[in-house]
Amino acid sequence: MKLLIVSGSQITPSQSAKVADYLNQVATQFSETQHIELCRYHLPFWDGEQESKNDENSSWPLLSARIREADALILITPEWGGMATPILKNFLLMCDMQEVAHKPVLLVSVVNGISGAYPITELRMNALKNNKLVAVPDHLIIRNVEQVLNDKQSQQSKLKVTATSFEAEQTARRDLALKERINYSLFMLYQYSQALSSIRRQHLHSPYPKQQEYRYGM
Fold first, then answer.
1. Strand order from edge to edge, sheet including 2-7
2. Is residue 123 in some structural domain?
3. Which of 34, 37, 106, 196 is least surrounded by CB atoms within 10 angstroms?
4. Cβ atoms within 10 A of the Cβ of 189, count?
5. Domain contains 217
6. Residues 6/84, Cβ–Cβ less than 8 Å
7. Which CATH number goes with the domain that contains 81?
8. Tens digit of pLDDT for each residue in 149-165?
9. Residue 214 in domain
C-alpha cells in the first residue's frame, strides 16, 4: 500500500510541512510514503476545463501520476480564516475520479491556537463530492502546532525560553497523546486502504451499467 501526503500551506517553510514530515516518518505500515508540498509546484488555477490543468509549465501531469499510484492520501491544511487554503481546494478541484475515486483520505488541520475544526468541516462538506475520495471517520486537528511534533532539540529550546516546568510537562503530555492519536489514525487509514483496494478492483473490472451517468455526487 502506497501513501501520499499532501500539505496545503501556501508558504514555505510551514508548520503544515513539519506535520507532514512527521507523518511521513511514522507511517511505517505503508510500503511507500511520499510528501508533496503544494506550494513548491506550479498549479494553474482550474477553470473547469481539462485544458487548464496542462498550461505551460504546469506541474499537474507529475502530480497526477503520483496521485494515481497512491492507495491512500492524507490532506493537511492550515486554518485560514476558518477555511482550508485556496491552493488545497484548487488541487482537489483538479483531482478527478480516475485519479482518486474510492481511495481513503485522512483529513488533518493545523492551527497555532485552539480552533482548527472549521477546515475539517469544510473539506468533508465540499471537497469530496465529485472526485469521490472517501474521508475516513477519524481526522486530526493539530492545535498549538508550534509546540508539538518537534524534534527534541528544538522542543527543549522552545520550552527553555517560553515555559515553566509545569507548562513544559503539560506540553510533553499533550505531545505524547497527540502522537498516540496519530498512530491510531494511521493504523485505521491503512485498514481502509486495504479494504477499498478491493472495491476499486471490482469497480474497474465489473462496473455498474451506465456508470458514466453517475459521475457526480448529488
1. 32-37, 2-7, 72-78, 104-110, 134-142
2. yes
3. 34
4. 25
5. no
6. no
7. 3.40.50.360
8. 998 655 555 555 556 78
9. no
pLDDT tier for residue 11 given thresholds of 50, 70 and 90: very high
CB 34 within 8 A of CB 3: yes
Exposure class string for 109-121: b at 16+ Cβ within 10 A, else e: bbbeeeebebbbe
Q: pLDDT for 100-110, tens place per residue? A: 999 999 999 99
Into how many domains does the chain fold? 1
Q: Domain of 114? A: 2-206
Q: How would you class 107 by CB atoms within 10 Å of its CB: exposed for 0-12, middle for 13-18, buried for 19 or more?
A: buried
Instruction: Measure the CA–CA gap between 96 and 99, rounded to whole angstroms.
Output: 6
190 pLDDT band, cuts 50/70/90, is very high
Place of cell 472517501: 134
User: Considering the entire predicted model, what is its pTM?
Assistant: 0.93
Q: What is the DSSP string of the chain?
A: -EEEEEE--SSSS-HHHHHHHHHHHH-TTSSEEEEEEGGGS--PPP-SSGGGGG-TT--HHHHHHHHHH-SEEEEEEE-BTTB--HHHHHHHHH--HHHHTT-EEEEEEE-SSS--HHHHHHHHHHSSTTT--EEEEEEEEE-SGGGSS--HHHHHHHHHHH--HHHHHHHHHHHHHHHHHHHHHHHHHHHHHHHHHHHHHHHHHSPPTTGGGG-S--
How high is the pLDDT of residue 161?
A: 56
